[in-house]
């Protein structure tokens, strides 16, 4: 089984319910075993148009589902929960991103793992640090805790 970390966010509707529904659907999917999840983190939107604040969490799962197939499954869950195409970085009912897939590095047109901006985003690093601070970023070779500290220092500077 492969360790996979997923970032989940919502800023439309009942955000907590949207996150809980997404986690429940991920956990119910054949071939996926939910290991743990972070608490909820409320954050300002990053980029895009003016929009409501996000509620975010990170989940750790184990699976043998290949990355592109897992991405398709997650996109289907987003659609089932009401996500519709919209403006880039715009408001959304649900957003599910594959942050890390074991220590794999994937640079596919539709899928980049590790998530290419995760090391710059507090809304990813804080919940990920809660559940797995010693996890090593496969490209940057730094722990999630180290990346979080650097990100916090960058925001202060």
Verbal overview:
This protein has 157 residues and is α+β, with helices and mostly antiparallel strands. The protein has a single domain (2-116), classed as 2-Layer Sandwich (Alpha-Beta Plaits), CATH 3.30.70. Helices cover 32% and strands 26% of the residues. It has helices at residues 15-28, 67-80, 122-131, 144-156; strands at 2-10, 32-37, 41-43, 54-63, 95-101, 106-108, 111-113. Strands 1, 2, 3, 4 and 5 form a five-stranded antiparallel sheet that branches. A two-stranded antiparallel ribbon has the order 6-7. A hairpin with a 2-residue loop joins strand 6 and strand 7 (111-113). Helix 3 runs antiparallel to helix 4. The radius of gyration is 15 Å and the shape is globular. It starts with a strand and ends with a helix.
Distance between the termini: 41 Å
The SSE order reads EHEEEHEEEHH
When the domains are counted, the total is: 1
CATH topology-level fold name: Alpha-Beta Plaits
Our Rg estimate from Cα atoms comes to 15 Å
Strand fraction equals 25-35%
What would you say about this model in short?
The protein is of the alpha+beta class and 157 residues long. The chain is 32% helix and 26% strand.
Note the main attributes of this structure:
single chain, 157 residues, alpha+beta, Alpha-Beta Plaits, two-stranded antiparallel ribbon
């Amino acid at each position: 089984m492969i360790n996979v970390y997923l970032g989940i966010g919502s800023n439309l509707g009942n955000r907590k319910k949207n996150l809980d529904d997404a986690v429940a659907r991920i956990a119910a999917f054949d071939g996926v075993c939910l290991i743990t999840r972070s608490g909820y983190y409320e954050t300002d939107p990053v980029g895009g148009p003016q929009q409501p604040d996000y509620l975010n969490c990170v989940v750790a799962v184990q699976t043998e589902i290949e990355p592109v197939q897992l991405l398709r499954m997650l996109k289907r869950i987003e659609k089932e929960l009401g996500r519709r195409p919209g403006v880039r970085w715009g408001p959304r009912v649900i957003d599910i991103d594959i942050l890390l897939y074991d220590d794999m590095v994937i640079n596919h047109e539709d899928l980049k793992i590790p998530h290419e901006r995760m090391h710059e985003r507090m809304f990813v690093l804080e919940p990920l640090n809660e559940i797995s601070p010693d996890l090593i970023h496969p490209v940057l070779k730094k722990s999630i805790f180290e990346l979080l500290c650097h990100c916090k220092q960058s925001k202060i500077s």
